[in-house]
Amino acid sequence: MITKQHHRSLVKTLTVLGAFLLVGGGLTGCGSDASTKTSEDNQSQSSSVVKHSHHKSNASSSSQAASSQSSSSTAKRQSQSSDAAILKRLVSYTDNESAGPNQNYYWSNGHARITGFSGMHAGSYHFAGDSLGRSATAKAVLTYSEYKSSQGSRQGDPLEPPAWPASNPIVAISFSLTGRTYHGYLYNRSHSIADSLLGWKSYTSAYNFTTGTRPQNVGADQDGGMRYAEEMAEGYWEDHPNTSHTIDYETTPLYEGSEDIPRGSVVDIKSSDGVLNSEIVVINSVEGIKINYNSGTSNAKTYETSSRAAYSSSATRSSTTTSNTQHSTAGGTKQGQWTVAGNGMVYVSDSNKYYTKVTNPQNYQYMSRSKAIAAGDTQASRGNEYARP
């Protein structure tokens, strides 16, 4: 028989037990909810980390692209800045009718600044005009095989460049470097990339030609001006016969404002093995002659005959049939583009070098080899597109 005291004790025990179960269930429920929320938070945090990681990756890619673009833009700005400084110097030389710092119509300007060759391959080339229709940068990836195939004869006829002058007078140019006087045409159709380097490809566009003065083309001694840069490339081929290496060759004419005739050109040359890496600046000027770089007109001095260049002065007047002209052209045999000297005879240049065949005999003195040697003249070590030993 249960007493009241026992009944109260039992009820109290059951109440405590129920409360405990309720509290335990509540704690279990709270723990489950907390665990789920933490998991969701972790998942959310994980998702956030992934998104952040992708963002960093994209930001990194964008940064690299921006960096590359910035580097390209910087290089372009630096190149333009360098060209502006070079042009300022060229304008000074040409305005003062100067042959430049070495009196041979060029100067060396450090390492090559080669640009825009990434999509080009061995043997490829590119010529273009600028917004004013003038010849602009000419580029080519030169090969040894092209150099060899172009030796022996000219591969084409020089094209008339944009804004070729209406008049190309016969002039006398006295060179301070050599003490000699050249008698012949003031202007040449000057290759940006020479026949001797690019062969027939050099004749595929008028944009590979500019109006260049005679000394701009070959300097005061036949080895200056544009010829100096060309000989650097030719010398590399001679030192590396049958090589698979290539030469990136780039010529950029520089104009003052809207003038039609360049004040000079920047020639950048770099071989794929890094042995050749130079920039040459060529001056389009003439000692003693003031040139209008818009029209090509000049204040050229009256043509005068010197004792040394008697052959030149008479022969260049091809329209005048005088005994002197007949004498100077006799003996040479015409063979295509070339005039070949007779047996024992040579053509002597104003730089005291003699050749056996030339394209413009009026620019040389025709004499016997023995007489040339006695006068101190020497055989040219190598030929070019105008003369061969």
Automatic annotation (TrEMBL):
It comes from the Bacteria. Residues 58-82, 305-330 have a biased composition (Low complexity). Gene3D superfamilies: Extracellular Endonuclease, subunit A. Residues 32-83, 295-336 are annotated as: Disordered. InterPro entries: DNA/RNA_non-sp_Endonuclease_sf. Residues 295-304 have a biased composition (Polar residues). Coiled coil: none annotated. This is Deoxyribonuclease. It comes from Secundilactobacillus collinoides (Lactobacillus collinoides). The lineage of its organism: Bacteria, Bacillati, Bacillota, Bacilli, Lactobacillales.
